[in-house]
Design brief:
Order of helices and strands of chain A: EHEEHEEEEHEHEHEHEHEHEHHEH
Number of helices of chain A: 11
Helix content of chain A: 25-40%
Radius of gyration of chain A: 23 Å
Oligomer: homotetramer
Number of strands of chain A: 14
Strand order of the largest sheet of chain A: 7-8-9-10-11-12-13-14
Chain lengths: 347, 347, 347, 347
């Protein structure tokens, strides 16, 4: 942490800073530059210190130096984290595809979709049983009934299942059915929920928040990891910007950036990220090219009759075409599609 | 809801839309313009319909017409909602000041602050017992011990208490101690929590999210109101933008805008909104001038030793000076400071 | 400037940095902290240095310390700059009101408006002769004919005139007619234009750009000042954010912040800032309360027939009411309305 | 254009709207819905009409239907525009690579770079002779001397040249030297400049502004096209968002979106878009996968000694590696690298 002094600071004010640092067991190294004097803080700093020092007389600004996350950082663990789910490995250099409807609407709808995405080569089945909705007056999911349908689909197709958990109370319930627990964008700073899934022995897929910087997102992963669960998969899904032509603005540079800063796998969700089915395929290919470890895609038997997010869902045929293209692009990139899951997944 | 057809739509595609609408009990009125053909949807539309129609052949875009919130809207209830807390009324045309430390750190710290803000004319005591923190490695509040200290301060000073609740599990606990339950910016779309505080018989102060549009924010209020609790106080506290010189960017135009669209009181939190103590007073005055029903302010005995958000806290003396200025400005605006709370508040 | 080394830097890399600094006449002070090693750069640094050093081996990040603007900074000139226009002083502690139509449409329209705003107490007449428009197919101003009409209005009413100049070629032309040259938000980084108005002996009103940080804005002022013209008035007019309910999001905290960082007067334009006439009055009052040195307001005889920006224009009557309120609020704030301009302004 | 009436509108107010529309030669079709009454405006509407109607009594909101750009729209011209520069075609289904230093610094630096990028397979040479810089105190280019150096490089290597023009006055000068005129992000709404390059017989590369929506960007292209120059190349280079870990946030979804809405070629500039050399290659590949017609890349002999933007420049070796990867990825995508330019370009 660096303390930048005001141009007109007094020697007394500078001494005040140095004394304060000593008082709390740290030390300060003063550099007198031509334009500014700066005090470098040496010792084990804690984050609140910035706020405290900023209010002291003579101080112009505080500049943090250390990164605030540890367990997630590549400096802490240089090698990629690989997470096994069923027979596929996420983060191991191959591209893993998670596909399915936004919401589980019925057994018929989910089973048809599960079979179609499996046939087209998907590795994981996605589907929401609990749906966060901006309005209280919209369809919010089949809840436990939806989880049971997902389980049935896993048993038939062998595809492991990723599904969202929205509240602490439901963590155990969802963990009984799901292979990967999903934390949605709206809950990225629901810290009690993060800690609760940190205590569960299942991988967690953590979506980036609408307003999360990459650093915030890694700190949310840190919450989960600090409770013992190291199997966190990051999922880029767009941030909120002034552009309204797409539902969100996908920040694909966050994929290589997050992978440089941390060792966790990063997947991409171009369905929510764009909100337009016709942008899903180009942004899926772009995500792979940016280095994503996987894709999360919405597929629906009849997108124009979906109870949720129809506008961004692919038809079975469009998903099949996307997978063909992903195969070719993945090979050119040296990130081939993961080999198909074989047999029932381990729950 | 309006369906905008593509320029090159076919008659068959248009018929498809009209038939689909009839199938679900609605009807469509077609307007053939010079540049575009538009179908106005008549009947009780539901929000998902936009997504469904958008994927139908021949459709260029869908434009919603109705506002998605009802109970919160001024069209539903034209008159201002007034919320009584202790002896003050929020939303009744006077300015209510809520002040105290960001976090309750000790009985000594809170009692001293409570006495100081009471002496300077504050109406409500604020203080966090549960603190949402971006990093898992920072001080997160005294929890129930903090609530007990708040209760003691209320008993001594008579000031009602507003404090944050972060998770469904703690709603009953916090409601036993607090006069107003606060929902923080990070939980503005934690829908289970919103519904839970909607079942409690205490007013709720709902902060705007970092990435919430005014409409999103009103929909979050709608979640609370839809469970029966109509006493919601909105709190503007800044949104996330590209500007980094302040912690957030306060959107003061949201105050008169929200008051035009809905009937709920709107208060302003310039401490979190700016993150800089020296911007708090001008932005507090500006909030009043923009029409805020109240202010929420951080005050701390020693801002440079605070365990949380010291950089944005006022000293006792600065708070006193702010209150003097607020008195004069409030009178000029026709929004005087509320008269002081007398005697112990009703819990 | 501080050079933050990577955790795994080598001694050779550190030496490389220190040698490079000496090679260009600077020196480096190394601080070895517990988590990071930092090199403080001492000497006259230049901005490109950050980019250069950032690519050197062993470097993690570069942190600039000095502010990149000089002439505009309060450290360079501690006292407020006061700018006299006609008989009013902008930046002298009183509130100056600039009012008039968005665009000059006809002599009749402008003269009626000039008389009305003068009668209600405005100090400066605004009106666009050259209009920047997002679409090439919209009304773009009367050009020199508009300037002549503005001149006629000044002669009759005595109000000095502020009007926009959009291109280098027109600077001399506009300067012959205007008392204050306005640089619009879209031209805030049109550096040749900034330099050209920097060579003119008239004050310049510099709007903030849609995407300008406060620092960018001050650097644009620095461009003007670096050519010799020190009479720059900053004008906050909203930035672009995710919120679409208002045309822009006014960042009122930028007013006290800019006044703290620099010595120039800062005015506020709530008409463009909000885009909604019914938000203009509350945001005008809020701007005053935030410390603005003046207001810039759109007034039109028939807002529903304006050729430009009718939705944000006040009627004569609404402007009169706003001025009454501004009078009361200004007195309470200790920033009274400037006394009326008397007699013809000096061109 | 649709006029949305307030819920409590009166018949008199509705008649007022209809009469006003007839008065200006349009007509209104009224749809009385369950929640809202809407008036569809039929006839040749003009953009200002929205503002005018919005202020009329009884009106709640105005919803535009038509797109405000014409010449640029795919509805106006369904087939892709192909632009020939030297021996390459931009927009014809192959990937065109423009590479070179951010700024021309010396003949030696530019010639070395031109030879290196040519050897690695680039098709167009980029280099700035006029540099827009946020601070007035930084290197701003060699101006005409820089143009002469670019010309010499074209003569030796045969690579056509793209370079920026910043002001109306320099358009003819730059057009004498350049094969493609570049309009920078800061000038995307410098309308006089747009019109001036619209009168020149050379292709124009139009960068997206920091705060431009896709629609704004297409309107800026429309300005150029409306003056007769139809050869506009759009260039995505990132927008300004809350994320500060990268210089800008690249909005790659804008590439397929712009190509759907308009017929112009779209290229991508990941060097400026990210500001970090180590993100350039993944974002270049991602841009190709998103459908870009070309790439614009910064290459410098010694990035750590560049006078401008060193942190985002590739070394010769890194550029060569990127081109190898681009070759493989382009083939997998069906968008191979364009065949090399042969012989001197036509100036």
């Amino acid at each position: 942490m660096m303390v930048i002094m005001r141009k007109d600071y007094t020697e007394e004010e500078l001494s005040g800073i140095l004394e304060r640092l000593e008082e709390i067991g740290l030390s300060g190294h003063t550099i007198v530059g031509m334009e500014r004097t700066v005090v470098g803080v040496v010792g084990q700093v804690y984050p609140e210190l910035a706020d405290d020092l900023e209010t002291m007389p003579g101080v112009d600004d505080i500049v943090p130096i250390s990164k605030p996350y540890k367990l997630a950082s590549r400096e802490f663990k240089p090698h990629n984290t690989e997470i096994r789910v069923g027979d596929v490995v996420i983060g191991g250099g191959q591209t893993v595809v998670m596909a399915g409807p936004c919401a589980v609407e019925s057994e018929e709808q989910l089973m048809a979709t599960a079979r179609a995405v499996k046939a087209a080569g998907a590795h994981v089945l996605r589907g929401g049983a609990f749906k966060p909705r901006t309005s209280p007056y919209t369809f919010r999911g089949l809840e436990e009934k939806g989880l049971q349908i997902l389980k049935a689909a896993r048993e038939e197709t062998g595809l492991p299942v990723v599904t969202e958990v929205m509240t602490v109370r439901d963590v155990d319930l969802v963990a009984r059915y799901a292979d990967i627990l999903q934390i949605g964008a709206r809950n990225v700073q629901n810290f009690f929920l993060l800690e609760e899934v940190g205590r569960v022995g299942k991988p967690v897929l953590l979506k980036r928040g609408f307003a999360s910087t990459v650093q915030d997102w890694l700190l949310s992963a840190e919450y989960i990891m600090s409770k013992g669960n190291r199997d966190v998969i990051l999922c880029e899904r767009g941030i909120r910007t002034f552009e309204t032509a797409t539902r969100n603005t996908m920040d694909l540079s966050a994929i290589p950036l997050a992978k440089r800063l941390c060792h966790l796998p990063v997947v991409s969700d171009p369905s929510h990220g764009t909100g337009k089915w016709y942008l899903v395929e180009p942004m899926a290919m772009a995500s792979m090219a940016a280095g994503a470890d996987g894709l999360m895609l919405e597929v629906h038997p009849n997108p124009d009759r979906a109870l949720s997010d129809g506008a961004e869902s692919l038809t079975f045929e469009n998903f099949r075409l996307l997978m063909e293209r992903a195969k070719a692009v993945g090979e050119a990139l040296g990130r081939p599609l993961a080999s198909e899951a074989k047999g029932p997944a381990r729950a």
